[in-house]
């Protein structure tokens, strides 16, 4: 019997909108999803652990991964590289497990080219003022970096039409429920049972 492949879910959106917060809350409820830990050249923030939050790499190490074709996508964002490891994603999908990426917009659009069957979700803030408050209150970025991230946010939000779904993160609980509904619904749509129903209906019409 041929094993059905897993689904690739991509959550994207401007810095500070709450992607990480929503993803972590979603993973507390949905244990079937697998999170792909990204590679980055940025320094760890307080409380971040190598191999859990990111695989922290030097620029040389990262560039070697790129040249060896080890990443599905990568992007330079706020003066650092970020990228998605190829082997983990492909192996996990081949095992029939769903993979969840949390990445910025340029990377997501590269993934779209190679995985057109993926499910692309864009998280937006209730307003740009609220986005600014969230990044500032998180307290992880310097003033310059906040400015750069907010500038990038405008161009990123312009790209939301390229996604399959747009979810407003006004309230964490609601946003998680919406993302979870997307996961469940896409799963139902693509499973063997759904295909069998479709086939049975087609046979019935003959
Ligand atoms: N719905 C919400 N209402 C209020 N605050 C929120 C909400 N969602 C997230 N936050 C807060 O906003 C801040 C940014 O959230 P988070 O770090 O998850 O964003 P992000 O999109 O992952 O950012 P980045 O792309 O920079 O990693 C955090 O302090 C988080 O607690
Ligand atoms: N293109 C990619 N973007 C990624 C990846 N992992 C994370 N990110 C995004 O980068 C920015 C900044 O992240 P931060 O942790 O420094 O705040 C944010 O939008 C992340 O979602 C990746 O593998 N590829």
Automatic annotation (TrEMBL):
<dbReference type="InterPro" id="IPR008144">
    <property type="entry name" value="Guanylate_kin-like_dom"/>
</dbReference>
<feature type="domain" description="Guanylate kinase-like">
    <location>
        <begin position="6"/>
        <end position="184"/>
    </location>
</feature>
<dbReference type="InterPro" id="IPR020590">
    <property type="entry name" value="Guanylate_kinase_CS"/>
</dbReference>
<feature type="binding site">
    <location>
        <begin position="13"/>
        <end position="20"/>
    </location>
    <ligand>
        <name>ATP</name>
    </ligand>
</feature>
<dbReference type="InterPro" id="IPR017665">
    <property type="entry name" value="Guanylate_kinase"/>
</dbReference>
<dbReference type="Pfam" id="PF00625">
    <property type="entry name" value="Guanylate_kin"/>
</dbReference>
<dbReference type="GO" id="GO:0005829">
    <property type="term" value="C:cytosol"/>
</dbReference>
<comment type="similarity">
    <text>Belongs to the guanylate kinase family.</text>
</comment>
<keyword id="KW-0418">Kinase</keyword>
<dbReference type="GO" id="GO:0004385">
    <property type="term" value="F:GMP kinase activity"/>
</dbReference>
<protein>
    <recommendedName>
        <fullName>Guanylate kinase</fullName>
        <ecNumber>2.7.4.8</ecNumber>
    </recommendedName>
</protein>
<comment type="function">
    <text>Essential for recycling GMP and indirectly, cGMP.</text>
</comment>
<keyword id="KW-0067">ATP-binding</keyword>
<dbReference type="InterPro" id="IPR008145">
    <property type="entry name" value="GK/Ca_channel_bsu"/>
</dbReference>
<keyword id="KW-0547">Nucleotide-binding</keyword>
<keyword id="KW-0808">Transferase</keyword>
<dbReference type="GO" id="GO:0005524">
    <property type="term" value="F:ATP binding"/>
</dbReference>
<keyword id="KW-0963">Cytoplasm</keyword>
<dbReference type="InterPro" id="IPR027417">
    <property type="entry name" value="P-loop_NTPase"/>
</dbReference>
């Amino acid at each position: 019997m041929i094993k059905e492949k897993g689904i690739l879910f991509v959550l994207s959106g401007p810095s500070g909108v709450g992607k990480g917060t929503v993803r972590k809350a979603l993973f507390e409820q949905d244990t079937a999803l697998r999170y792909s830990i990204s590679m980055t050249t940025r320094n760890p923030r307080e409380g971040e652990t190598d191999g859990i939050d990111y695989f922290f790499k030097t620029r040389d190490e990262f560039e070697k991964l790129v040249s060896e074709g080890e990443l599905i996508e990568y992007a330079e964002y706020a003066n650092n590289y970020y990228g998605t490891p190829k082997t983990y994603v492909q192996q996990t999908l081949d095992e029939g497990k769903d993979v969840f990426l949390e990445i910025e917009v340029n990377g997501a659009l590269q993934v779209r080219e190679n995985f057109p069957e993926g499910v692309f979700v864009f998280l937006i803030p209730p307003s740009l003022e609220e986005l600014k408050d969230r990044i500032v209150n998180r307290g992880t970025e310097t003033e310059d970096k906040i400015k750069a991230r907010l500038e990038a946010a405008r161009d990123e939000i312009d790209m939301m039409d390229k996604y399959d779904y747009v979810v407003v993160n006004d309230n964490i609980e609601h946003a998680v429920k919406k993302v979870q509904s997307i996961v469940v619904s896409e799963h139902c749509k693509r499973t063997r049972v759904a295909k069998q129903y479709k086939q049975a209906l087609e046979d019935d019409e003959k």
